[in-house]
Amino acid sequence: MNWDDTTDEAAGAAERLVGPAAERLVDSGADGEDQAVEAALRPKDLGEFIGQEKVREQLDLVLRAARARGATADHVLLSGAPGLGKTTLSMIIAAEMGAPIRITSGPAIQHAGDLAAILSSLQEGEVLFLDEIHRMSRPAEEMLYMAMEDFRVDVIVGKGPGATAIPLELPPFTLVGATTRAGLLPPPLRDRFGFTAHMEFYEPAELERVVHRSAQLLDVEIDPRGAAEIAGRSRGTPRIANRLLRRVRDYAQVKADGHITQDIAGAALAVYEVDGRGLDRLDRAVLEALLKLFGGGPVGLSTLAVAVGEERETVEEVAEPFLVREGLLARTPRGRVATPAAWAHLGLVPPRQAGGKGQQDLFGT
C-alpha cells in the first residue's frame, strides 16, 4: 500500500471517528455569545474572584500599596491558558484603582502608529489591557519599551533623511498584558513589568464554587452533586465550566423540571458528548485514531492529524495539550504514543509486545 492509499484510508476513518464538524463545548476560546455571558458572570472585585489564591494575594498587595501612595499601579503581566481569568483580572485591576480601562489585542497592533494612537489617547491612571501581547509586531513592541519605562514615545514624521522624531509625553498609565505563550515574550519587554503572575488550572473544588456562583447569577437551581459533575468535566477552566452549565441548564429546562442534579448533568453532557474526564468528540477521535489505526503509536503528528481530518495545528494546540496533561498521550522523539491510561479510558486492551520502542517504554516491555 502506498502513502496515498494510507492517507485516503485515514481520511475515511476520520469521517467515521469525528463525524461532521461541530462547536466544541470544551473549547477554552470565547465567541460572541460567551463574551456576553461572561460579562454578566464576571466578578467585579478581588473578593468575588474565585481561585488563584496566590495571584490574588500578591495582586491585592500591589494595588493597595499603589492606592496608598496615590500612584498608578505597576505594569502587570498575566500568563496562562485561555479561560482562566486574565481578562477578568484586568477589569478588576481597573475597578480596584478606580480607573477606566482600554482593551485591545496584540494582533490588532501591526504598526507602531497603531500603538502610538492608542497610547496618546490614554488618560492619566487609565488601564490598558493588551491581550495576546506576544503577537504584537516588533516595531510596536520596541515603542512599548519606552512607553512603559519613561511614559514617552517618539513619533517619526517624514521618511528618509528628512525624517524627524518628535517626543510625545504620555500620562502615567498601567499596562496589563495577557499571554498564553509567555516564552515568546522578549526579555526586554518581560522585564519592564513590575508584577508578573502565572494563572494555574483550577482544582475541582474551586470550579464547584464557580458553578454555584454562576448558577445563582443565572437563576438556576443546582445541587452540590450536580455542580461537582459539571466541575469534574470542565478541564480545570472556569470558562468551560460556565459554558457547560448553560448547556446543562438548557437540558434541565427541556427534559426535566429545571433543577440540575448529578443525573441530569450527566445525561446532558452525554448528549453533548463530553465524557467523565472532560474529553469531547475531537479528543476521543485523536485517541481512537492513535489506538485503533496505529496500535497506540508512535505516530507522527501530521499523520495523526490526517487520520482525524483536522489541521496539524488544531491537533497540536487544541486537543493535544489536554490529553498530555491528563496522562492519556505522550510525546516521544519518534512521535505521539498512547499511554496505558488511554487504553483504559476507551475500554481497550493494550498490546504488550506490539508497537515501537516509545510505546514499549511506556508499558515497560
UniProtKB/TrEMBL annotation:
Q: Which GO terms describe its molecular function?
A: ATP binding; four-way junction DNA binding; four-way junction helicase activity; hydrolase activity
The protein's matches in InterPro entries, at most eight in alphabetical order, are given as: AAA+_ATPase, AAA_lid_4, DNA_helicase_Holl-junc_RuvB, P-loop_NTPase, RuvB-like_N, RuvB_wg_C, WH-like_DNA-bd_sf, WH_DNA-bd_sf
Stretches the record annotates as Large ATPase domain (RuvB-L):
22-202
SUPFAM superfamilies, from UniProt?
P-loop containing nucleoside triphosphate hydrolases (SSF52540), Winged helix' DNA-binding domain (SSF46785)
Where is the stretch described as Head domain (RuvB-H)?
276-365
Region feature Small ATPAse domain (RuvB-S), mapped onto this chain: 203-273
Check the record and name the SMART domains matching this protein.
AAA
Q: Which residues bind Mg(2+)?
A: T87
Q: Please state the Enzyme Commission number of this protein.
A: 3.6.4.-
> Where DNA is bound, by residue?
R312, R331, R336
Where is this protein primarily located? cytoplasm
**Catalytically driven reaction(s):** ATP + H2O = ADP + phosphate + H(+)
Outline the subunit composition: Homohexamer. Forms an RuvA(8)-RuvB(12)-Holliday junction (HJ) complex. HJ DNA is sandwiched between 2 RuvA tetramers; dsDNA enters through RuvA and exits via RuvB. An RuvB hexamer assembles on each DNA strand where it exits the tetramer. Each RuvB hexamer is contacted by two RuvA subunits (via domain III) on 2 adjacent RuvB subunits; this complex drives branch migration. In the full resolvosome a probable DNA-RuvA(4)-RuvB(12)-RuvC(2) complex forms which resolves the HJ.
Which protein family is named in the record? Belongs to the RuvB family.
Q: Describe its function.
A: The RuvA-RuvB-RuvC complex processes Holliday junction (HJ) DNA during genetic recombination and DNA repair, while the RuvA-RuvB complex plays an important role in the rescue of blocked DNA replication forks via replication fork reversal (RFR). RuvA specifically binds to HJ cruciform DNA, conferring on it an open structure. The RuvB hexamer acts as an ATP-dependent pump, pulling dsDNA into and through the RuvAB complex. RuvB forms 2 homohexamers on either side of HJ DNA bound by 1 or 2 RuvA tetramers; 4 subunits per hexamer contact DNA at a time.
**Known NCBIfam families for this protein?**
PRK00080.1, ruvB
Protein name as annotated: Holliday junction branch migration complex subunit RuvB
Species name: Streptomyces venezuelae
